[in-house]
Design a protein that fits this description.
The relative contact order is 0.12. The protein has one domain. The chain is 54% helix and 0% strand. It is elongated and about 70 Å long. It contains four helices and no strands.
Length: 129
C-alpha cells in the first residue's frame, strides 16, 4: 500500500479507536462519580450489614452482588442495597441508549428462569430488592 492510502486508513482507525474509548469510558466514569466519597466496604461488611439477618446464604449474596457490580461496572464495595436503578445507577444524561442496567435485567431473568421462579422485574427498584 502506498502512503496515499495508509494515512487515511490510519486516521480512520484512530478515530474509531477514540470513539470506542469515549463510548466505553465516559459514561462509566460519570456513573462512578456519583459514588465518590462513599466508603468502600468489603463483601463481608456488606453481607453482615445488609443481608445476614435476611437469612440469605452468604455465598449466594456475594455471587449476586459481584454479578450486579460487574454488569454495572461499579466496584462491589461502593454499591449499596438502597442504590436505585433509576437514580444512582442510571445511565448518565446523554448516554441512556447504552444503559448497563439491561445486563442486570437479563441476568435476573436468566436466574429466575433457571430457578423456576416468577417475578415482575419492573417492580424491582433497588439493588437490595
Amino acid at each position: 500500500m502506498n502512503s496515499e492510502v495508509l494515512v487515511p486508513v490510519a486516521i480512520l482507525v484512530l478515530l474509531i479507536a477514540g470513539a470506542v474509548f469515549v463510548w466505553a469510558y465516559v459514561p462509566r466514569r460519570q456513573r462512578l462519580k456519583r459514588f465518590e466519597g462513599r466508603p468502600d466496604l468489603s463483601l463481608d461488611q456488606i453481607y453482615d450489614e445488609f443481608f445476614a439477618r435476611k437469612n440469605l446464604p452468604k455465598e449466594l449474596a456475594r455471587e449476586l452482588w459481584n454479578e450486579v457490580s460487574a454488569s454495572l461496572h461499579v466496584p462491589p464495595g461502593m454499591l449499596r442495597p438502597t442504590d436505585r436503578f433509576d437514580e444512582e445507577l442510571a445511565a448518565p444524561k446523554g448516554w441512556e441508549f447504552d444503559d448497563d442496567i439491561v445486563e442486570v435485567q437479563w441476568a435476573a431473568e436468566r436466574r429466575l428462569k433457571q430457578s423456576g421462579t416468577q417475578a415482575d422485574l419492573s417492580l424491582i427498584k433497588t439493588v437490595g430488592e
